[in-house]
Amino acid sequence: MFVLPALAAGGQRSAIEAARESGRIARKRFGEAISGQTVIAAAFALLYIPVVVIGLIGYTAFGDGSQAFGGLVVSLAILLGLFLSVTQSAVDGVFRVALYDFAVDGAVMAPFTSDDLENGLRPKRRLLKR
């Protein structure tokens, strides 16, 4: 989870060392489950719904004989989907870097609060506690 932020943070470490540090930080600081990324994925899933609807409209129009309109609308849906995908990746990357800085230094980056970052990774609940 923190391999790229660990590599970007500096130091002359290898990818294997960064992966080990990533695992160590995640286990020590946050537990096992990832909840911040789940929230990001759920928010973007809601944004994908209109893109799918637009794509279906274009596909239906294409099949009904209006190839020019259908092709244009399907192309628009594909471009919107690509834009959302890139945006989701960027938001996830910013969240990971902010979470890494918070885990290592306790620093809170601008759009996030300490509560956001403290709950960014939450230990998973057990159904049957032993």
Provide a compact summary of the structure.
By secondary structure, the protein is mainly alpha-helical. Helix content is 72%, strand content 3%.
Provide structural commentary.
- Strands 1-2 form a two-stranded antiparallel ribbon.
- It has helices spanning 3-8, 15-30, 36-63, 67-105, 114-118; strands at residues 33-34, 121-122.
- α3 (36-63) runs antiparallel to α4 (67-105).
- It contains five helices and two strands; from the N terminus they run ααβαααβ.
- It is 72% helix and 3% strand.
Radius of gyration: 20 Å
Largest sheet: 2 strands, antiparallel
How do the helices and strands follow one another from N- to C-terminus?
Answer: HHEHHHE
The structural class is mainly alpha
Q: Give the rounded overall mean pLDDT.
A: 78
Distance between the termini: 28 Å
What are the segments in which pLDDT stays under 50 over at least 5 consecutive residues?
A: none
Spatial ordering of strands, largest sheet: 1-2
What is the molecular shape?
elongated
Tell me the strand percentage band: under 5%
Helix run count: 5
Total beta strand runs: 2
> Into which percent range does the helicity of residues fall?
over 70%
